[in-house]
């Protein structure tokens, strides 16, 4: 699975950070960024799915 963040769509609510603390961080402007790139598996894949589910503006998408 690969996680994508649409930084133009992200409004900085931070719910993704709570759902995926090992995968996502917030930049200085409060916009979500990935801590890693490329395909994910295991716990990080689970965190990516959780982050996509909780994002209120659908800025996080998954490619499986």
Automatic annotation (TrEMBL):
<feature type="domain" description="4Fe-4S ferredoxin-type">
    <location>
        <begin position="1"/>
        <end position="29"/>
    </location>
</feature>
<dbReference type="GO" id="GO:0005506">
    <property type="term" value="F:iron ion binding"/>
</dbReference>
<comment type="function">
    <text>Ferredoxins are iron-sulfur proteins that transfer electrons in a wide variety of metabolic reactions.</text>
</comment>
<protein>
    <recommendedName>
        <fullName>Ferredoxin</fullName>
    </recommendedName>
</protein>
<keyword id="KW-0813">Transport</keyword>
<dbReference type="Pfam" id="PF13459">
    <property type="entry name" value="Fer4_15"/>
</dbReference>
<dbReference type="GO" id="GO:0009055">
    <property type="term" value="F:electron transfer activity"/>
</dbReference>
<dbReference type="GO" id="GO:0051538">
    <property type="term" value="F:3 iron, 4 sulfur cluster binding"/>
</dbReference>
<keyword id="KW-0408">Iron</keyword>
<dbReference type="InterPro" id="IPR051269">
    <property type="entry name" value="Fe-S_cluster_ET"/>
</dbReference>
<dbReference type="InterPro" id="IPR001080">
    <property type="entry name" value="3Fe4S_ferredoxin"/>
</dbReference>
<keyword id="KW-0003">3Fe-4S</keyword>
<keyword id="KW-0411">Iron-sulfur</keyword>
<keyword id="KW-0479">Metal-binding</keyword>
<dbReference type="InterPro" id="IPR017896">
    <property type="entry name" value="4Fe4S_Fe-S-bd"/>
</dbReference>
<keyword id="KW-0249">Electron transport</keyword>
